[in-house]
DNA sequence: GCAAAAGTGTTCTAGTTACACCCATGC
DNA sequence: GCATGGGTGTAACTAGAACACTTTTGC
């Protein structure tokens, strides 16, 4: 195992890595996928190393695929973190010792003492489709509500904060939702998604008017059944028009 | 010299570097600062290596300072370029041979055959204050009009294209001009800057109204003298209010 | 005096915001 | 039948767009 890991390290870049903030949306809450490191209670973002012959974007896609099982998901590079003190959060000796005991001394040095620049990506995924899988260093995957994220290893709390900022920037210039919602969804669900990301309430009528004005939504003849209260209509994104709106850009200004 | 260079390489990261798109504005034209490589007619962006104990941002500031003599300039990280074929533009053997003859074979390998991820920054500088200075590999600095930029080495044409996109994004959400214009300037000059960056014409009255509404400009009792035609008033940014507007953001929507 | 650029306000339009009543469903 | 949430349109307001004439200066 240690041998495998060394071979893997030898095939990958040592000074640059990737970390991904994977956003999901469920039960009206915005969530991020986090990993718990083996033998510890330290959590971190999913991330990974880049093969020497692999582009950054390809590595990000691969890492996402490895952790969620999903391909073809929305993935966006948002910032590259290059402070020299990126590992300072990881100073609790107890944690380090446990890791060292588990992985061996060499790996410890490689992982935590080297200075590494990390390229931050954020991904938007459909919560229900994710098959979360831990990696070499971790043995638990969990979705955390944005508001409940604990103190993370490395500078990963900062990474989430700025990913969220980038997502908020994104949502104001491009449609969002295709990757975060199931194929069919109701207008109140879409509105709740926007409200959750932007932490802001909207008027139902105005929201509907604005979203429909982008001409990316298709109102279906179906309604969501089995829920309390009046059955809401179902909508679906028109993939073609949605893609076009992504490229040409929209201005969501509520 | 070769020895110095090897020592420098040993103190810096090998897999990550920085490239800077330095924008200036002069005579109604948006310009970028480019460097010509010694013994060649190949041009590239200013860039540099990162010291092992230096943060990305500090390295970018240092590189800018080295090339322009300026400190405290507007600097923004906009994208990290990590394709594996980033060096493919550099295939002209004649160029490579000349470089090899000049720098020696070792340097050639290090620089051009290694796969390097490059963090892109763009800077906005006041044209007149720049004392452009070439680096180790180059012997000429020149300002080029954006529209006249030749085919550059590496993937640097792409870098300029996306820096310009990022700048256009920037200008719509934050005030711009403090770093690109001299201390005192006229409203038509400021308008020309906006028009040049966005490649779009504005109505003088509406432009003035909008810019003044941000409450970041101070109209002076002076006029620019000695120019043809009616003397325009001079304006100055109110640094405090300008900084506040940068943080809180504006919406330039013309 | 003439050409070229700058100073200045108002009207119209379009987009954004505010707002309320009825209806369907589950319990 | 009642509580809860969803569906739907209009009026007021505000911000953006369009627009022209006068003034100053250098040549």
UniProtKB/TrEMBL annotation, chains A, B:
Pfam families: NUDIX, WHD_NrtR
CDD domains, per the entry: NUDIX_NadM_like
The entry's keywords: Hydrolase
Nudix hydrolase domain span: 13-167
Record-linked InterPro entries: NUDIX_hydrolase-like_dom_sf, NUDIX_hydrolase_dom, WH-like_DNA-bd_sf, WH_DNA-bd_sf, WHD_NrtR
Keyword Cell inner membrane: no
This protein's record includes keyword Hydrolase: yes
Transmembrane domains' residue ranges: none
Protein name: NUDIX hydrolase
Species, as recorded: Dyadobacter luticola
